[in-house]
Amino acid sequence: MADGSILLIQVLNGVQYGLLLFLVASGLTLIFGIMGVINLAHGSFYMMGAYIAFSLTELLGNFWLAILIGIPLSVAIGLGLELLLFRRLYRRDHLYQVLLTYGLILIMEEMRSLLVGDDVHGIAIPALFDVSIRLTDTLSYPVYRLLMSAICLVMAGLMALVIQRTRFGMTIRAGADNREMVELLGIDIGLVYRIVFAAGVALAAFAGMIAAPVASVYPGMGNQILIVSFVVVVIGGIGSVKGAFLGSLLIGLADTFGQVLAPQAAGMTVYMLMAGVLLWRPAGLFGRA
Amino acid sequence: MASPTPIPRALLLIGLAALALYPIAGDVFYVQLFAKIMIFAIFAMSLDLLVGFTGLISFGHAAFFGLGAYTLMVLSPEYTAASLWLSLPLAVAVAAMAALIIGALVLRTSGVYFIMVTLAFAQMLYYFAVQSKVLGGSDGAYIYVKPDAAILGWRPFDLGNRVHFYYLVLALMIGTYALLRTVLRSLFGRVILGIRANEQRMRALGYPVFRYKLAAFALAGGLAGLAGYLEAAQYGYVNPEFFGWQESGSVLMMVILGGIGSLFGPILGAFALTLLQDFLSDEAIFHGFHKHWLLPMGIFIILAVLLLPRGIGGFALGLGRRAPEIADD
Amino acid sequence: MTEPILRVSGLSKQFGGLAAVSDVSLELRRGEVHAVIGPNGAGKTTLINMLSGDLAPSAGAIRFEDREIAGLSADRIARLGIGRSYQKVNIFPDFTLLENCRLAAQARLPSSLRFFRPALDHAALIEGATRALRLVGLEAPWDRLAGRVSHGEQRQLEIAMTLATEPKVLLLDEPLAGMGAEESQRMVALIARLAESHAVLLVEHDMDAVFSVARLLTVMVNGRVLERGAPIAIRESPAVQQAYLGTAEPDS
């Protein structure tokens, strides 16, 4: 039965990674789907969240308090960036969006370097959750990881609720489908954009915050997750939150199992999966060609 | 119809003359720096073929740059020099073949998907290089001896000599420019320009668009491999960062900032960006802050995008998004 | 009566629950203009899109010469000899008039994977382009930018490009849209000339033009063929008049 529990652990790890990835990738896919903006700096928001969590935890001594303050802080930063930069990108060529958000990555990396330095940091798992739960006689699993998955699932549920059941969600779905039409209907599309963008930033930052105790806080963490998020969006289809969810889980599991089953190809499984999906569906699983 | 402005031509020729004459009296440090810039100019021109002339925004062009570099490394075991005449064409061929294969996959996508997918493939190669013991892993590997230019015992030049290397790179840069100019004037070039202008109409006219995009992708990949080969030869060192997205981002910046739709735009972009980087990271000028040169660089990029919609080349020479001067010849 | 060069049978297109085109059949013959008319939303553009390969049919067959072409890609269909002009001008605005047509003519070559000889050296292509330009009545100089000429001239260019590919069948999608009286007359004369050596399918709202140049009319309503016949018969048909609610289509 040892095999079974190891399998279970890998599945739990894969799902946890996938769910975390979903928080980041969903923001990315919405920002592209609704506003038509390709945001290379999205990974930097993840990093920003992690470093905010670290700094505030150091300052305040409490991880949850840090998150509580960190989220509105991230939203504020997101709104500020939207005002300053992103709103100029809505009608631009992809080329300029790529360039501008690339410049933003550089700036955010250096700001972090100046403000917090380049060291790798860790955040202690909050004592209450720093335990492991018994799965079988021989194997136990960290409760904090289960908590992370639970939180991400709740967030996913909330998103699904908002998107499927509220008027605002309807506007989002319509906007992803046909931006011009939504504008012509007289809806203040600027407000919609602002909210979606701020939400995207907040989600990515939040993901960085809750992942920090487990994944540690280090320069370059944003870049890694950005690229994998791109793969998720490509697999799932641009603008599709459902696709992002499915894609994230697929990637999470593929990466986790890939590392265990074929360590030589570790890191590459994700791309091979992407290549496979693209051969079959060039617009992603739920994307529109 | 205005003929292509003669002023830029004159400027170009002056610049070329300056480049050709510099090593005679110039500082060795700058000889090396300019050689590096010209290598990037080749890299940038190859990407411009895709971005500026075919309308394909690739964020993974470093994949082919890296392949050219690693090919040289593989062909230069321990203390033996690879033959320039064998290793260089081979590096270009390897890069072009890889571009053919990767292109066959990624060109099935378009728009944002294409951008992301090209990035992802370059990342795949990055991870492959990091994992690979043979290739030196994340530390990379050294090329102890520069490629040997000997043909049947006669050595026309020595790549270990900085000035010789400089002239080789200059010749290759001019050659790349000439090749691309010829290709863009050819039947193939017209198709490429047409695809960028109105891909749907090209299909409606009867063009099987995919194969032309693939050919452009392979050509661009091969030239990027050439640049990678030269970069590896210059510094005698390769590492997985050659495949990295910062590399892809850098060269894309050079193309965009230099001005798309012209061939010397990327050359200008390569000079501007590298010299800027060199300036910003100069310890003597910026003291403690020089380590954070990416910050002013990032700000510069953002300002340039917001204020100069047509890039430096476009701004300086009044080129718009019109068909480039080649069309009017 | 000559053999039909294009035979459409039972062509349909569904968009989800909406049947844009249902069970449409028609034939095109060389030497005649077959016009397709109908109120807005009748499915005329969808029909043309299926014939040109811009849309794949949900059902039905399209036979061109001896070959089944339904569902083939737009570029294959174009290469087989079916040319199409667009309702919304679909040219290369940044290229010259000559280059627009030269590029179109070049599409006829078996392969453009030629990298070294300058395109302008291929004299045959330039001849083909100038021939097409003259045919539609576009005057030299042809090195004017396509984006800068008048709307009427752009429409002429639109047709010239299609002609430069030397098609056997011409699918003309509202070529008179947005044209003044004089330009329209010239265009109608052009269409009549072209019909002598091509099979022409004309989708149009301008009834005067249609009645003066078409040999056969197919009336479409709600995606289906309502009636087919000679212009006079159609004009008198009560069913057709009813479909148009008794009002003549306004000249565009």
Mind explaining what this structure looks like?
Chain A has 289 residues and is an all-alpha fold. Chain A has a domain at 12-129 and 138-218. Helices cover 74% and strands 2% of the residues of chain A. Chain A is built from eleven helices and two strands. Chain A has helices at residues 2-35, 42-60, 63-84, 94-116, 143-165, 167-177, 179-184, 189-215, 221-236, 241-261, 269-280; strands spanning 132-134, 140-142. Chain A has a two-stranded antiparallel ribbon with strand order 1-2. In chain A, a hairpin with a 5-residue loop joins strand 1 and strand 2 (140-142). With 329 residues, chain B is an all-alpha fold. Chain B has one domain. Chain B has 13 helices and two strands; from the N terminus they run αααααβαααβααααα. In chain B, strands 1-2 form a two-stranded antiparallel sheet. In chain B, helix 2 packs parallel to helix 6, helix 2 (28-54) packs antiparallel against helix 8 (209-235) and helix 4 (84-106) crosses helix 8 (209-235). The longest helix of chain B has 27 residues, at 28-54. Mean pLDDT of chain B is 85; it is low at 1-5 and 315-329. Chain C is α/β, with parallel strands linked by helices and 252 residues long. Chain C has two domains: 1-81 and 168-252, Rossmann fold; 89-166, no CATH class. Chain C is 35% helix and 25% strand. Chain C contains nine helices and ten strands. In chain C, the strands form two sheets. Chain C has a six-stranded mixed β-sheet with strand order 6-7-8-3-9-10, with helices on both faces. A four-stranded antiparallel β-sheet of chain C has the order 2-1-4-5, with helices on one face. Chains in contact: A-B, B-C. Chain A binds chain B through residues 32, 38, 85, 88, 94-96, 98-100, 102-107, 109-111, 113-114, 223, 227, 230-231, 233-234, 238, 264-268, 271-272, 274-275, 278-279, 282-284, 287, and chain B through 51, 57, 59, 105-106, 108-109, 111-113, 115-117, 119-121, 123-124, 127-128, 130-131, 245, 249, 252-253, 256-257, 260, 291-292, 294-295, 297-302, 305-306, 309.
